[in-house]
Design goal:
CATH architecture: Orthogonal Bundle
Largest sheet: 3 strands, antiparallel
Helix content: 40-55%
Distance between the termini: 37 Å
Number of helices: 3
Order of helices and strands: EHHEEH
Number of domains: 1
Structural class: alpha+beta
CATH topology: Multidrug-efflux Transporter Regulator, Chain: A, Domain 2
Length: 61
């Protein structure tokens, strides 16, 4: 499976995409601002949910 086919992002990938610090991404996940799924100890961010969140935020401006 190629990386483009993945449905989720890691915290680090999300951090890079959003241009935020690691701690701010974790804080946003904890407060529910960034949707996430926990599988074992891993935290994954669904790509579709993150992109919908970004679109909704940009559309409000």
């Amino acid at each position: 499976m190629e990386n483009d086919e993945r449905l989720t992002l890691t915290v680090k990938e999300t951090q890079i995409i959003l241009g935020l610090s690691r701690s701010l991404v974790y804080q946003a996940i904890e407060t529910g601002e960034i949707p996430s799924v926990r599988i074992g100890k891993r935290i994954l961010i669904p790509k579709a949910a993150l992109y919908r969140l970004l679109e909704a935020t940009v559309s409000k401006k």
